[in-house]
Specification:
Layout lengths: L1 E4 L2 H7 L8 H11 L1 E2 L4 E4 L1 H11 L5 H15 L1
Antiparallel strand pairs: 1-3, 2-3
Amino acid sequence: MYSVKLNQKAISYLSKPVNGNGGYQELLRKLQGQYDQDSQTLNYNDDDLEKMRRYNKYDEGGFENILQSILFCIDKS
């Protein structure tokens, strides 16, 4: 398990409600559950990271912004 401190942009995106069903939405709900508000830290594993990178390649409009902001924090750490 890894952890990364998120910036305000990533926190703002990750805090939004997730509507619908599907792999992407399931991933977002999982990540929301793994986010610790007190420390502003997201815990994730290799599978989560692989899915974030894979889903980020799709053109999903607002969805890609959420993953890009999280991946930016991961890549900077």
